[in-house]
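haha ok so turns out i had the wrong file open the whole time. this is the CORRECT one, sorry everyone. sequence first:
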Amino acid sequence: MTLTRRTLNLSIAVAFSMTAGIALAQKGETVKIAFIDPLSGPFANVGQNQLKSWQFIGDYFNQKNAAGVKFEFVPFDNKGSPQESLTALKGAIDQGIRYVTQGNGSGAAAAISDAVTKYNERNPGKEVIYLNYAAVDPALTNEKCSYWHFRLDADTTMKMEALTSFMKDQPEIKKVYIIGQNYSHGQQVSRYFKEDIKRKRPDIQIVGDDLHPIGQVKDFAPYVAKIKASGADSVVTGNWGQDLTLLIKAAKEVGLNASFYTYYAGVSGTPTALAAGLGGKVRVVAYSYNDLPGIAQKIQNDFKKKFNDDWYTGATYNGVAMLVAGMAKAKDTDPVKVAAAMEGLKFQGFQGEVEMRKADHQLQQGLYISEWRKADAKHPYSVENTGYNFQEVKAIPAYVASTPTSCQMTHP
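then structure:
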């Protein structure tokens, strides 16, 4: 063997051993993810539950996953504020954290998405990925879409398409009252409901349309009095957290005999307010429900045993599952490589195979209409120990719930 050839072979061997060393170094690597959401203030109970949910799912995947990494969730309290969210994001980046997740509030989501996009443009080699698990403003995957933003929840248009597809087949619905929080989400629920129901059931009357300050109303009795006086047989609301809990309490106190069509009746505190139910039926449109079979049921039961609390944010599972699949595909934890791997990625979520649509980074998944009913032998789970749970009444496949996108994504 010539010296040149021996040197070449030695160089190849060294390069191979270094590459193998890098791959092995990723085994057991800890990936830190900043959790930025309200941990104090009126929505603290929701944020605290979802922080536990992310940490619980992180521990679940830490036992074994295809990427061979560990996940650690680092909490930052944004107090529900877009401004505080930016402060928290800076704090996370200063700590070297390159993955962030947030969900409670589309205002905070828009601020984070924009800030992450600008930061990544200015800091090549230090890029950050933003996992949006619950902020459903359609703009985030349309005109404000970002390569670095990945949404795990279904957006408002998807949920409304599914909800109105169900409502159009309910002949008892004749008069609807819309009530929501006065920010982008509440405004969009009103807008898209009116547009969709006019197309599908033009005979339905909109007898009221109210917006109220988010997180500030302590007594919803005046709003409920208006609903009752309107003769509405149904209420549509995108309210969540304290704003839905207090609305439900006020409806019970005055004996409002109307059905509620909601996005977030399963969120912390509201099931307890519902307890034995309202005058009418209470239904939710979401990507999960309480008696979803398979891995979701096991996680739900294990979470309950550990915390005496409910795991209702299935996006926490899908988020970590997507990161695992993306990192395994990229054979790396670098956000640049992982983002590229997650585009168009199909992976196993808690509800079966789902797809992160390449065009706009909006997860494509089936949706469900579920109804608040008494627990029984077939559906034994007790939400917030009420003896009730949300049970499926209609499944909407992903291709039906999917809506088009206007996203013109700029790739790095």
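The domain at 157-286+367-401 is CATH 3.40.50.2300 (Rossmann fold).
again sry for the mixup
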